[in-house]
Design brief:
The structure holds 3 protein chains of 3 kinds.
Chain A (H helix, E strand, L loop, with lengths): L25 H35 L2 E2 L7 E2 L3 H8 L2 H34 L4 H14 L3 H10 L5 H8 L14 H11 L2 H12 L3 H9 L4 H29 L3 H6 L13 H11 L3 H29 L3 H4 L1
Helix pairs in contact in A: 1-13, 3-7, 3-8, 3-10, 4-8, 8-10, 10-13, 12-13
Chain B lengths: L1 H7 L6 H4 L1 H8 L6 H4 L5 H5 L9 H28 L21 H8 L6 H32 L5 H13 L3 H13 L7 H8 L4 H12 L3 H9 L4 H12 L1 H17 L2 H6 L8 H7 L9 H33 L4
Chain C lengths: L5 H16 L19 E8 L2 H17 L3 E8 L1 H14 L5 E4 L1 H9 L21 H5 L2 E2 L2 E2 L1 E7 L1 E6 H7 L10 H15 L13 H9 L16 H10 L1 H7 L3 H7 L12 E5 L3 H8 L6 E4 L14 E8 L6 H13 L1 H7 L5 E2 L2 H5 L5 H12 L15 H17 L4 H17 L1
Parallel strand pairs in C: 1-2, 1-3
Antiparallel strand pairs in C: 3-10, 4-5, 6-10, 6-11, 7-8, 7-9
The chains are: A mainly alpha, B mainly alpha, C alpha+beta.
Chain lengths: 321, 331, 431
């Protein structure tokens, strides 16, 4: 968040700021009134349904609260327990990080690869684009989770197909080592949304750049390396940020695929899932709130790191040209 | 959110400049501001793209075959699902192949009979009602908020905009428990209020952001002209901005509908009477661990539930994909 | 602030929101002694199960309304885990449904927190008790208050899949052997099954087996005062005794993961499964087989002659303390528990009815007959019921199951599992 606003770019700023919004200025007062007037619904929602509950859950995270008796303040005990006396939580952190750090880059690589392929075509790419985008809309539904279990089960389509090329892995669903890869396949399957964004980015790259590169005798690879990638870096960054945050919040599909259990061997017990179980099944609301806050902190850290690093590798049009 | 506070001070109280990072896509001419995406480049111009004119027919065919194969792989799970609806429940977990051993229509018969004496059509109608309210609420509240963020200059707008963007990053799980306790205290359990109130209060920041982006690309001359004619903000909003915002409104409406249609967790938590259930919760009933697990009916019902989404997709995919392309919305 | 055009739009939205709120609460209140036949009353009834059971309740309520047309019953149901998640949350806000199906393992928690109506004023009058045995009634008593009544009873048992036994040519498990002999028997099936079917699933993954293992030594899992009543060494010995099963005799855990929420027997992978005796109907549905394909035997026993088994309420009915209509609720409970016609509708879907009057209406199908006969046959092994499960027993039971799966997958050692389990138990008991 912090860095969200640091990359200065010439946006569609108003045609000169007319008057400073000063006190006593009737125009400014009217604007103030209008501004907050239009924001009334959003303000109620923000304070009532987002900020208020957040503060409350932060408070709960320092309590022992079983929902029947009033919350009992216990300081940092929940956080201490999490990191010192709860191997299941530690495992859920590992599982979540593995999923996020492996799944997101792979998904984006797939999205970029297919976007390049589609960009190569002019005719018919609309059909493919739509077909590839469809999974993004339905990927989290109950039915897809059931399908996924079947796809990756023993003697299922995936097992059989791999058997044909001599890889006999058996079912993935019950395999401790393959459960996360199975989830990663599910997220890669939904590569359509970032792909569409990449595609839009590719179509926005000025043709002259490629022509100039060709004049210099650049190979296809060189063109990709020196024109496409830099021109696309802001889009890559945007996708990376959104997909990473999204991946941290994986819940529905893991919940449904493991039937709420987080099995096999806790390999699908993502932090969000564990939080839900602690809160709603075990009624350890304080502990659950603490887990939720740790998830939030992880998301904030990763987002901040991404923004920091972006200065080094994200190029903007002005710099390249 | 925690970061929001720290950044707020660094943000100039100018709503336009605040959006920067997330607008880079739109502002650098790199990918598509709404206006450009809405008008795909002419075919001939696109042909000039990388190596365009020099592509050999053979390479084209090879790539095309690869794309076709990829399509088959990607769509296979959906095809599998379609076939699975004809499998008897007892084949699930045993027959993993595409073709049912003993094809049957029982699953659909069972689904049509409904659950707990509630016909399936009722669940469809409930889902439809909730989804329509979600759409209405989203359009009204998000467009108002977006107008304020994009067009009105007032004290505090920068900080508030940052807060709004911050909620984009917020893991939803942080607020679910307190929200439930709140709605419970207000006696709103087993009503649709908890499901739609957030939509009427612009809590889905994605839509606000999408519309802010769109409004920023509407030339200011139009408002200025209206302002000179003596129009205030409400008039400018209603008669200048809203009509021009139509493409963004349509995109938002479709996404709001589909997200609401697919939503599972909120109705699970808030709805208790079967006659008020939405589809995803009704689906879950078919698949209960303590009694007979009826995968067949679950699959058939899930398939039926997907149909509206797929239809929406077929008819409105242009808007969906443009929405995604322009704003990075995700399904 | 808003123009004339905008205001109606907003008003509409607000009106819609208000309209939706109208769908909330239930009938008015008159918590007096007797039922006024002219008063219109609405009761919420919640139970867990699937649509088959829901259909049965639907029928039962139609009958109920023939007698009490003024009481509208609106029923809600969910799967077992979701049902309890929802009740837990409602309990927090004091918004429990008037009449609930109830589970033994949550009884203490809800009773001790004053969430359930003390049924004493209604017992023997509104809720007739002559069909119940003393033992059946006693089981819903927490700290001297009766807060729930058994719908039916069940006992721990072993289900056998006759089809697998026929195919593998192994004689049925005789029942009442030692755990080691059960392992040896399972091994025969597994050997004959050739990697497609197995003798059973790891019995050390279920806390109920640990319970009968302990009860075979004369002790319960927890004391009356909700303290742990077993040692780490005992738990370790139990999980280690399960090692041969995990080393190739039983269904590999990775295969079970794939079929979850079905288990070994229900998925057709295992010839036997230790479970509650009222689970037969769901196995039939899971397997898609005839009733004759299932048999019931007595579980293995730690020490011959021990009284390790007990009759447990399979399900109970309870009334929320926050109900506005206690008399009407009690009337409904009585009807659901005692009516012969209701018995005819449900059969043994909710276990063998605890009420003799209701049992009279049940037409026992072959499987129900087997269950009934089984519960008669184990009379010698039936001991006193253990104390009502501790608060949070559901969490403890689930933790035990999950650790069992981890042992099966080899992701933790027995020592680690023992540590984790005891740590979890202490957190649950102290919270």
């Amino acid at each position: 968040m912090t860095v969200l606003t640091t990359t200065k770019a010439p946006v569609t700023v108003a045609p000169a700021r007319r008057r400073q919004p000063g006190r006593g200025n009737p125009r400014a007062r009217r604007e103030l009134l209008a501004g907050y007037g239009f924001l009334v619904p959003w303000l109620i929602g923000f304070f009532g349904l987002t900020l208020g509950p957040m503060v409350m859950s932060l408070y709960l995270s320092f309590t022992r609260y079983n929902i029947f008796t009033p919350p009992e303040f216990i300081g940092l005990a929940n956080y201490v327990r999490m990191f010192t006396d709860d191997p299941v939580f530690i495992k859920s952190v590992k599982v979540t990080l593995t999923y996020v750090l492996a799944g997101t880059p792979l998904k984006l690589a797939a999205a970029l690869g297919v976007a390049l392929l589609l960009n190569y075509f002019t005719k018919g790419s609309g059909f493919f684009r739509s077909a590839f985008y469809a999974p993004s809309l339905i990927g989290a539904s109950v039915s897809i989770a059931i399908v996924w279990r079947a796809m990756f089960g023993t003697d299922g389509p995936v097992d059989s197909a791999l058997g044909l090329i001599g890889l006999d892995l058996g079912g993935w669903v019950g395999n401790v080592d393959l459960a996360i890869p199975m989830m990663i396949c599910l997220t890669i399957w939904q590569f359509g949304a970032p792909m569409v964004i990449f595609l839009a980015g590719l179509q926005g790259i000025p043709q002259e750049l490629y022509e100039a590169a060709e004049v210099d005798g650049a190979s296809s690879l060189a063109k990709f390396r020196h024109v496409t990638l830099p021109m696309l870096s802001s889009v890559i960054f945007f996708n990376l940020l959104l997909e990473t945050i999204h991946a941290f919040q994986v819940f529905g599909s893991a919940f449904i695929i493991s039937n709420g259990s987080g099995s096999p061997g806790g390999m699908l017990n993502f932090m969000t899932l564990y939080m839900y179980k602690r809160g709603f099944a075990d009624m350890q609301m304080g502990y659950a709130a603490a887990i939720a806050w740790v998830v939030l902190i992880f998301v904030a850290i990763v987002a901040a790191l991404l923004f920091r690093s972006s200065k080094a590798w994200v190029h903007y049009a002005g710099e390249t040209r | 959110m925690n970061a929001t506070a720290s950044s707020a001070s660094a943000v100039p109280a100018d709503s336009a400049a605040t959006s920067v990072a997330l607008t880079t896509t739109a502002s650098n001419g790199v990918p598509a501001a709404p206006t450009t995406a809405a008008h795909p480049q002419p075919w001939a111009e696109r042909l000039r793209r990388i190596g365009g004119p020099r592509r050999s027919p053979l390479a084209m065919i090879v790539w095309f075959v690869i794309l076709l194969a990829l399509t088959a792989v990607i769509l296979y799970p959906l095809i599998w699902l379609a076939f699975a609806t004809f499998k008897p429940s007892s084949e699930f977990g045993q027959n993993f192949s595409l073709i049912p051993w003993e094809a049957t229509l029982d699953n659909f018969r069972k689904v049509l009979r409904g659950i707990a004496g509630v016909p399936l059509s009722r669940f469809f109608l409930n889902s439809l009602l909730v989804a329509c309210l979600a759409v209405a609420g989203t359009l009204i509240s998000a467009s108002m908020a977006a107008y304020a963020f994009a067009r009105i200059k007032f004290r505090g707008v920068g900080g508030l905009f940052t807060c709004m963007i911050g909620t984009l990053l917020l893991p939803f799980h942080v607020i679910i428990i307190p929200q439930y306790i709140m709605f419970n205290k207000m006696g709103l359990i087993d009503t649709y209020v908890p499901l739609v109130i957030g939509k009427f209060l612009a809590c889905e920041a994605f839509f606000v952001f999408l519309m802010v982006q769109f409004i920023r690309n509407i030339p200011r001359d139009l408002d200025e002209a209206a302002r000179i004619d003596g129009a205030g903000h409400p008039r400018i909003f209603l008669s200048v901005i809203l009509p021009l915002l139509r493409p963004a409104l349509i995109t938002s409406a479709i996404f709001a509908f589909i997200w609401s249609w697919n939503d599972f967790l909120s109705p699970l938590i808030y709805l208790t009477s079967p006659e008020r259930y939405t589809l995803p919760i009704a689906l879950r009933l078919f698949n209960d661990a303590t009694s007979t697990s009826d995968y067949g009916a679950t699959v058939a019902a899930s398939f039926a539930a997907l149909i509206p989404v797929l239809l929406f997709f077929l008819f409105f995919q242009r808007f969906l994909i443009q929405g995604v392309a322009t704003q990075g919305l995700k399904g | 602030m808003f123009s004339k055009k905008l205001a109606p739009a907003l008003g509409l939205g607000l009106a819609a929101a208000l309209l939706l709120t109208g769908c909330g609460g239930s009938g008015s209140s008159d918590p007096s002694g007797s039922l006024d036949p002219n008063q219109q009353i609405t009761l919420d009834l919640a139970f867990w199960g699937n649509d088959v059971r829901a259909g049965m309740y639907e029928e039962a309520i139609v009958l109920f309304n023939q007698q009490y047309p003024n009481i509208k019953v609106s029923q809600t149901f969910l799967g077992f885990p979701e049902f309890w998640e929802k009740r837990q949350i409602e309990a927090a806000g004091g918004g429990l449904p008037d009449v609930m199906m109830f589970d033994y393992s949550y009884l203490r928690q809800y009773s001790e927190n004053g969430l359930l109506l003390d049924l004493a004023p209604y017992l023997g009058s509104t809720i007739k008790t002559d069909g119940f045995t003393e033992a059946a009634l006693g089981i819903g008593v927490v700290d001297g208050h009766t807060t729930a009544i058994s719908i039916g009873t069940n006992a721990w048992a072993m289900y056998l899949n006759n089809d697998i036994l026929t195919a593998t040519g192994v004689a049925p498990y005789p029942g009442n052997t030692s755990f080691a002999d059960y392992d040896a028997w399972m091994d025969q099936v597994t050997q004959a099954g050739g990697g497609t079917v197995y003798g059973g699933q790891d019995w050390s993954g279920r806390i109920q087996n640990f319970e009968i293992w302990l009860r075979g030594q004369g002790k319960d899992l927890f004391t009356d005062a909700s303290e742990v009543n077993f040692t780490a060494a005992e738990l370790k010995a139990f999980w280690e005794a399960g090692q041969p099963g995990r080393d190739g005799i039983c269904v590999p855990q990775s295969k079970l993961e794939e079929v979850y929420p079905k288990f070994g027997l229900g998925s057709g992978l295992a010839a036997t499964e230790l479970t509650w005796d009222n689970f037969g109907a769901s196995y039939l549905g899971d397997l898609g087989v005839e009733q004759t394909s299932l048999a019931i035997a007595a579980p293995p026993i730690y020490r011959a002659g021990a009284q390790d088994l007990y009759l447990k309420p399979s399900m109970m009915h309870a009334i929320a303390a926050n109900t506005d209509q206690p008399v009407a609720a009690a009337t409904l409970v009585d009807f659901l528990l005692n009516s012969e016609a209701v018995g005819a509708i449900f059969g043994t879907n909710r276990g063998i009815p605890a009420s003799a009057t209701q049992l009279a209406g049940v037409n026992l199908d072959p499987l129900s007959q087997k269950i009934y006969d089984y519960e008669q046959s184990i009379a010698d092994r039936l001991g006193a019921a253990p104390p009502v499960p501790v608060v949070g027993y559901g969490t403890i039971e689930e933790k035990f199951r999950v650790l069992g799966t981890e042992l099966g997958l080899g992701t933790i050692t027995v020592d680690q599992a023992v540590d984790q389990f005891l740590s979890e138990v202490s957190h649950v008991l102290n919270s």
